[in-house]
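User: What would this chain look like folded?
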Amino acid sequence: MGQLIKSDGSNPAKSFIIRDAVADDADLSAALHSRVWRLTYANLAPPVMFEASMDERRKRHWRSVLKPNDRGEQDSHTIIALTAGTIAGFISVGPPRDSALRQRGEVKQLYVDQIAQGLALSKLVLSAGFEHLQALGYTSIRLAVVEGNDPAIKFYKAAGGLDVGCFTDPGPLWPSANRLIAWDQVGDPT
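Assistant: Here's the prediction, encoded as structure tokens.
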């Protein structure tokens, strides 16, 4: 992808650098992931999910995800958005992990810092993820969002996603009910 500078349409003075994540972004991505996850799921997830060990798991996860494999590539693709030199959001996309998603590109994770959520950054990050999946040849995209995460469900539907079903993610610690949101004709979600 390289590096793009995009401006928030509602606030042209607010600019974001949107670029592919690299291994050096792992710890900052993990910190953002933990912070936003804790806020988002405070009233949805069981207490075990808020233990300090989960933050360490996220660090290991992001170090693994952003570490190139033996082919020099990442197994999934992560795009980050920076503002004022800090990671304000990210999206991780790639081939589907779950048979419930079929053979469609998958948005694996999308997290935006609470301080940037009113700045249209979520749409910019989602659009960058869609562009990457389209470049891989996917014409349709799906994602799973935890039932009860109403702001995310509302955002995805406003971005043109359709609610196409549900499934339970067994997870290692939390079997969560999830909604499947799909875009069958990928376009710009903004």
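The chain has a mean pLDDT of 85. If you want, I can go into more detail on any region.
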